Amino acid sequence: MNGDNPLDSSAVHPEAYPLVQRIAAETDRDIRSLIGDASFLKRLDPKKYTDETFGLPTVTDILQELEKPGRDPRPEFKTAEFQEGVEDLKDLQLGMILEGVVTNVTNFGAFVDIGVHQDGLVHISALSEKFIKDPREAVKAGDVVKVKVMEIDIPRKRVGLSMRMSDTPGEKIDGARGARPGSAPRQSQNTAPRKETTAPAPANNAMASLFANAKQLKKR
């Protein structure tokens, strides 16, 4: 015992400890006995433990991590180094590159804590330079990632992020699910290229739609 949390010897991220504690309480099990009990954990329904903080993909990942025998990950543990002076939404700037921690993974992207008291959203189309069908192919809860600030909506407390460092702020990051990131529309040889606008687009309805979808998914 010695005051140490038994989850410290698991691969579960500290931010998910409250969820594991709730699972233990509802199943009348001691947390220590949950770790490594794969047969018991496989019988649990992840949907039963979802809420506004933890979506289904995240709960599923956590249960899978609990199936692994206890170990001490502390020698290899790495946490995000939040940028000094960036503590609030108003401190963010378009194009800023930050380090953060993945807090939740949904069917359409991932939420990342970048140290401003409001998680930013990385849409599935901006999670990787290559095409992916499932966000969990690229990230999982607890991962430390590098992101670029793409959109900022202070009134609605929303931040759009990208894990593709080649993306330019103002570009739409909510492309079609099947679109291959980084691909550009083919232009006719007889057609002059369209003139680009240099001013970044303000936070728009696209980002609002993504956050609305996220809120609805968390409630399921």
Task: Tell me about this structure.
By secondary structure, the protein is an alpha+beta fold. It has two domains: 6-73, Tex RuvX-like domain-like (DNA polymerase, domain 1), CATH 1.10.150.310; 89-175 and 201-219, Beta Barrel (OB fold (Dihydrolipoamide Acetyltransferase, E2P)). The protein has five helices and five strands, in the order ααααβββββα. It has a five-stranded mixed beta barrel. The protein is elongated, with a radius of gyration of 20 Å.
Number of helices: 5
Written as H for each helix and E for each strand, in order along the chain, the element string is: HHHHEEEEEH
Multimeric organization: single chain
Count of discrete domains: 2
Assigned CATH class of the largest domain: Mainly Beta
What integer is the average pLDDT?
78
Report the CATH architecture of the largest domain: Beta Barrel
The span between the termini is: 37 Å
CATH superfamily of the largest domain: Nucleic acid-binding proteins
Estimate percent helicity. 10-25%
User: What is the overall silhouette?
Assistant: elongated
CATH topology of the largest domain: OB fold (Dihydrolipoamide Acetyltransferase, E2P)
CA radius of gyration: 20 Å
Q: pLDDT below 50 for ≥5 consecutive residues: which ranges?
A: 174-203
Number of beta-strand segments: 5
Q: Given the helix and strand composition, which structural class is it?
A: alpha+beta
Question: What percentage of the residues does DSSP assign to strands (E)?
Answer: 15-25%
Strand order of the largest sheet: 1-2-3-5-4
Major sheet description:
5 strands, mixed, barrel
